[in-house]
Amino acid sequence: MAIRKIDELNIKDKRVFVRVDFNVPIEQGRVTEPHRIDSALPTIRLVLSSAKKVIIASHLGRPGGKKSAEWSLAPVRDYVEQALATPVTLAPDCIGAEVEALVREPHPKIILLENLRFHKEEEKNDLDFSRALASLADVYVNDAFGAAHRAHASTAGMASFFHEKAAGLLLFKELEYLGRILSSPERPFITILGGAKVSDKIGILQTLLSKVDALLIGGGMAYTFLKARGAGVGKSLVEEERLTLALEIAAQAEARGIPFLLPVDHVVADTAKKNPSTVEGDIPPDFLGLDIGPKTADQFSTEIRKARMALWNGPLGMFEVNEFSRGTISIAKTLAESRAISIVAGGDTVAAITKAGVEEKITHLSTGGGATLEFLEGRKLPGIQALET
Ligand code: AMP
Question: Which of 220, 262, 307, 371 could in theory staple to 340 by disulfide, Cβ–Cβ 3.0 to 4.6 A?
Answer without folding.
Answer: 307
